[in-house]
Design goal:
heterodimer, A: alpha/beta, Rossmann fold, FAD/NAD(P)-binding domain, five-stranded parallel β-sheet, B: alpha/beta, Glutathione S-transferase Yfyf (Class Pi), Chain A, domain 2, 2 domains, four-stranded parallel β-sheet, 15 helices, globular
Chain lengths: 662, 301
């Protein structure tokens, strides 16, 4: 029950000179003292400081205050601080209202008289509203200790291992038949040039053998219900037609396939080699279990194969050609999304000749070419069988470009430098790097760039205009010509090369919108998943209990990805180990006697927080899912939907307060 | 007059590019597509104005759009790439910049801008591709091609910045239409490069050098002729060939044709009505190629 006699204390903050320079703080405080129900009005240099908070605590006792208004900065910053002060002072923390006279007055106005008047109006509104405030209580939600990690690249692997090592059970779900992600395709990593497989595969094996990790490859999340602490997730495991529990990883079935020659383009090698219909993506794949691709397997297509693979497997009976997809329902308290990226499709920029000229490659293809376990066993041999004498690397393909993607993909400069080094090492070729700016902001990155300069890689500053086969000079015959304005030399150059490498940028995966819908998270304009705050909550999302790691959030290199994965794991651990979270009480609730069961609220709710109870024909709000956006409250035609801290009395009082200009 | 395509010839098709008009009218007549010339049309504003005074260029073009609207045409066909671009640009600017829209409105003293923007400005190559299509061209063949290989040259203005008539960086519609008519085309990397435009008249050397590159690469790719969609491209490549030949000591004598001449001939237009005798370069080749030879009906049955 609200206190019958309202006694309001108003505190106006100077915020150093942030507010006081533009708003006459003393005048605001004096004005507040004249308002009805206000028994005390003070101004103070820093209300958020300990002495400032002490003022509130002491005044509550000495002046028997039962409502507090603080006029200072944004509630995003200090609402929690002041509510806590109320609580310590013995008041319900929701007998409080905060007025933002900094971001909404002093910082955005220049005229001191008018800014002061606005501050007074805002304070009057708060004083009127706070009289109607009621005591509210925060709820508690228990957190299920299990975690879902979606995506088995380096981000997902690192997050899963961190959590598992802390004793939590992790479900690691990966779409591909193996974990490892993009990193498994790389040869060396910049700037240290250590072998990607050598540092990645131990972690992959650790995932496989960790008792706290349930690894589901070739699987997808198809449904998510619930809320922070209590997610119910449905995972669909696609049949690989080889039983993971029975298979020993001997790979005899591969050799036994009736396809003596591999004929299917190998996706892991980006189509640079062929595989059989039964295959393992790469030698260190985890799990070490082959997959049958029903699109190309004769048995699946015609049913008339001799199924020599089944014979080769023999007594193990690991091959089951009649396997069906399996659905698993799991319960987890928190989720880490580590779904990664895709590389920009170079065919979208036809003037760079990808797909038209055989010797134009994407950087990821060249990663496979220089990789000892790649399609050419590490030999840089072009599609026409030659070894290049001259190579041009084109930076910013699908990055920093008005026509494709405007963002910098962050990793391309460094991987281009790395490829320049590796190509030189493998072939002795002359290498040209065509760049707009060289961006090397990382530990040891600039030093790596210097090393490449000393290795005599030619750096040409300018965005490449086109890669073409038209010949102006006999020396260009049979080669690819890179046309570029050399902006340092100040003229247009034509540089003939044998091989072109396009440093394609990173973009959101094509299925990112689906993932966003499943987990109810947002994206920024370019499609990468949106963090809750770009600086202070970089791995949180706006959905509680769902965290981000790696390139699904924005392009980043391996060190940053691993750091972010660790941070996401730590955030999940913090929730799990707290055991519960407190919920904000500013949620909507249904006045059942007024609800007519029209369900308007359900379609409006962006958080799926409203459900319908057919037996009583009423809507009900799940207060854990509700974010207090108020959409349903505004939409409800019968006024049955109400919201704590936004009751009609409170809102009308506030509006009147603003508009009653003395 | 609705139903017909409004036809905006522009200055070129009445002057140096008259062969384009002759062949285009003949071709469209054969296909049963009526081209009706706008009455009282004026300069599109392209070469003379666009680079010096955009506003005037747009005002000029908007008057042509108004004429088309008043005459009841939904589509305006502009064969010259420069006209096509300026008409399209006028619409785009009116829509994007309210200030320009207001000026146009004031200058015309009439004309609902929405109506002007609703008119579809089209290039005849796109009309042929979309409204007729390679399939119908293939079925309507009357003469069998016995000429050489052709490099399809689209120039810069038809596909940029508005990639509506074809793809901006790798247009293929002329290639597809000509192949449908049995004409072999070559992979021509310079298909959207600059012909120099009016530079041949102002900064002559630069303009001629650009045309040299175009001719040389076409020859290198095995083309015996170049097909164009724009009177200025055609003129530059055709009229300066002798000069280029003398300066480069390379024996160019390559016919520079309009795509409409080739298609019109293949579909059976009167050879005399295609403006072929107006060719400057490669006259002998033109004479040989465009002699009478009917399609063997059985072979195409």
């Amino acid at each position: 029950m609200p206190e019958r006699i309202v006694r309001i204390g108003v505190y106006t903050c100077h915020c150093g000179s942030n507010i006081a320079a533009t708003v006459d703080v003393k005048a605001v405080a004096e004005f507040a003292a004249t308002l009805p129900n206000v028994v005390l009005s003070r101004d103070y240099k820093y209300m958020c400081s300990d002495p400032g908070q002490d003022l509130i605590r002491q005044d509550i006792r000495s002046h028997a205050l039962n409502r507090i208004v603080v006029a200072s900065c944004s509630p995003h910053l200090h609402e929690h601080t002041f509510r806590t002060a109320l609580k310590v002072g013995g008041l319900n923390p929701f007998y409080f209202h905060m007025v933002n006279i900094r971001e909404q007055a002093s910082w955005v106005h220049e005229n001191r008289v008018q800014a002061t008047r606005k501050a007074k109006d805002l304070v009057r509104a708060a004083v009127r509203r706070v009289a109607f405030h009621e005591p509210l209580k925060r709820g508690r939600v228990a957190i299920h200790p299990d975690v879902l990690v979606l995506g088995g690249g380096i981000a997902g692997i690192h997050a899963a291992l961190t959590l598992a090592n802390a004793g939590k059970h992790v479900y690691l779900v990966e779409k591909e038949p193996t974990i490892g992600g993009h990193m498994a395709k790389f040869d060396k990593t910049f700037p240290t040039l250590d072998c990607a497989a050598c540092i990645l595969t131990p972690k992959m094996s650790a995932v496989r053998s960790h008792p706290n990790i349930t690894l589901w490859t070739y699987s997808e999340v198809v449904k998510v219900d619930g809320y922070v602490g209590n997610y119910k997730v449905k995972v669909l495991r696609h049949p690989r037609y080889i039983d993971e529990d029975l298979c020993a990883g001997c790979l005899d079935c591969l050799e036994a396939c009736v396809y003596k020659q591999a004929k299917v383009p190998d996706a892991f090698n980006l189509g640079l080699s062929k595989r059989r219909p039964i295959y393992i993506p790469f030698p260190q794949a985890v799990p070490q279990v082959p997959v049958i691709d029903p699109e190309t397997c004769i048995q699946f297509k015609s049913g008339k194969c001799k199924t020599t693979c089944v014979d080769a497997c023999g007594e193990r009976h690991a091959i089951n050609l009649h396997a069906e997809p399996q659905a698993h329902e799991i319960e987890v308290g928190t989720v880490i999304l580590a779904t990664g990226f895709q590389t920009f499709d170079a065919a979208r920029v036809p003037y760079y000749g990808y797909g038209r000229y055989g010797n134009v490659y994407t950087a990821l293809e060249v990663e496979r070419l220089v990789n000892a376990s790649g399609p050419t066993a590490g030999q840089v041999v072009m599609r026409d069988g030659r070894t290049p004498q001259t190579v041009g690397i084109v930076h910013c393909v699908g990055s920093r470009d008005e026509n494709t993607h405007r963002w910098c993909s962050r990793v391309c400069c460094m991987y281009s430098l790395k490829l320049a080094h590796l190509i030189k090492e493998h072939t002795g070729a002359e290498v040209f790097d065509f760049y707009i700016d060289i961006r090397t902001p990382g530990k040891g990155f600039e030093e790596f760039y210097q090393k490449l300069l000393n290795e005599r890689v030619h750096f040409v500053r300018g965005r490449v205009a086109e890669v073409t086969d038209w010949v102006l000079d006999p020396s260009e015959e049979g080669r690819l010509v890179i046309r570029v304005e050399d902006t340092l030399a100040g003229f247009v150059r034509r540089i003939p090369v044998d091989m072109v490498v396009l440093a394609t940028g990173l973009e959101p995966r094509a299925d990112a919108p689906e993932i966003r819908r499943l987990f109810n998270i947002s994206c920024a304009g370019e499609g990468f998943f949106l963090e809750r705050h770009p600086k202070l909550a970089p791995v949180n999302t706006f959905t509680d209990g769902v965290f981000l790691a790696g390139c699904c959030q924005s392009p980043k290199d391996i060190p940053d990805t691993v750091a972010q994965a660790g941070a996401a794991a730590a955030e999940a651990l913090a929730l799990i180990d707290a055991g519960y979270i407190e919920t904000e009480p500013n949620t909507a609730h249904v006045e059942e006697s007024l609800c007519c069961g029209c369900k308007t609220c359900m379609s409006m709710c962006p958080y799926h927080a409203v459900s319908f109870l057919p037996e009583i024909y009423k809507s009900r709000v799940n207060e854990v899912l509700c974010k207090g956006c108020g959409t349903c409250v505004a939409a409800c035609p019968s006024g049955a939907m109400r919201q704590n801290l936004f009751e009609d009395d409170e809102i009308f009082a506030e509006i009147e307060g603003i508009l009653t200009n003395a | 007059m609705s139903g017909a395509y409004g036809y905006f010839p522009g200055c070129s098709l009445k002057g140096a590019g008259v062969a384009y008009e002759e062949s285009l009218l003949a071709l469209f007549r054969l296909l049963g597509l009526p081209l009706a010339e706008l009455e009282d049309w004026n300069c599109c504003g392209a070469t003379s104005y666009m680079s010096i005074d955009e506003r005037s260029a747009i005002l000029l073009s908007s008057r042509n759009l108004l004429l088309a609207h008043k005459a009841g045409y939904r589509d305006v066909v502009a064969p010259c790439s420069a006209c096509y671009l300026v008409l399209r640009k006028a619409q785009d600017y009116m829509e994007r910049y309210p200030r320009i829209g207001k000026e146009v409105h004031a200058a015309l003293g009439d004309g609902d801008l929405k109506v002007l923007n609703a008119i579809r400005v089209r290039h005849p190559l796109e009309v042929l591709y979309t409204d007729v299509g390679p399939g119908r061209i293939r079925q309507s063949l009357v003469r069998q091609w016995h000429g050489g290989r052709v490099a399809c040259y689209y120039g810069c203005q038809m596909v940029r910045p508005y990639a509506e008539a074809d793809r901006a960086h790798d247009p293929m519609r002329m290639d597809e239409l000509l192949r449908a008519a049995g004409v072999p085309t070559v992979d021509y990397s310079l298909k959207t490069k600059c012909c120099g435009g009016s530079l041949t008249g102002t900064t002559h050397e630069v303009g001629v050098r650009l045309n040299y590159a175009l001719l040389r690469e076409a020859a290198r790719k095995g083309a015996d002729a170049i097909a164009t969609v724009c009177p200025l491209c055609q003129y530059n490549l055709d009229a300066y060939q002798r000069e280029i030949r003398r300066a480069s000591h390379e024996p160019f004598d390559m016919p520079i044709l309009y795509f409409s001449q080739i298609l019109g001939w293949a579909l059976g237009a009167d050879t005399g009505a295609l403006g072929l005798r107006r060719a400057i370069s490669g006259r002998k080749t033109v004479q040989q190629w465009f002699s009478e030879r009917r399609v063997e009906k059985e072979a195409y049955a």
